[in-house]
Amino acid sequence: MRRRICVFFLGWAVFVSSMNATACYFVTGMEHENAEIARGLRRRDADLLDRLIEQYQHRLLRYLVYLAGNRELAEDLFQETWIRVLERGHQYDGKHEFSTWLYAVARNLTIDYLRKKSPVSLDGMMDGLRARQRGPGEHPGGVSRGRGVALSGRISFGRDCHGNRVAAGHS
After folding, report:
1. Same domain, 23 and 87
2. Which of 10, 64, 89, 158 has the lowest tally of Cβ within 10 angstroms?
3. Are 156 and 167 a contacting pair, CB within 8 Å?
4. How many Cβ atoms sit within 10 Å of the Cβ of residue 13?
5. What is the reported pTM?
6. Domain region containing 137
7. Mind listing the pLDDT tens digit for each residue in 47-99?
8. Do 39 and 76 sit in the same domain of this protein?
9. Are residues 25 and 87 in the same domain?
10. Domain tally for the chain?
11. How far apart are CA 105 and CA 86, in angstroms?
12. Is 99 helix (H, G, I), strand (E, B) or coil?
């Protein structure tokens, strides 16, 4: 294949058979815009950040509502995302779409929040089940033999007098 110079941006080589002039203009324009965004974020350009927030605010908030499942949480994550963009904008290299990097930042913040939110304790879940299953007169500190949570139908767990979890029937 022969290489030709794009008429819109001299010096930009493209394969004529794979891309028409409009696509050439569009692709090189996007790359130029992404490079400008990267430079602006490295400089911490407040005007650029305002433009980006205005351009992406609706799509980003909608994406965060989808991820978080809660509008208030999504609004908090929205603000955190833009703070993170300002703090770590120097990490954006401009080689890819800015929106891809922005949504990755938002997704990672959401995942981090949901991981830290409220871990579920297996012991807490089992205590709640045991309290409902405990018969009258059974001491909460003793081992509930034959009661408790059956895992895979093989092992039942209870608590010894010190509160340690043990397999029922074992001490």
Report:
1. yes
2. 10
3. yes
4. 8
5. 0.55
6. 122-167
7. 999 999 999 999 999 999 999 999 999 999 999 999 999 999 999 999 999 99
8. yes
9. yes
10. 2
11. 11
12. helix
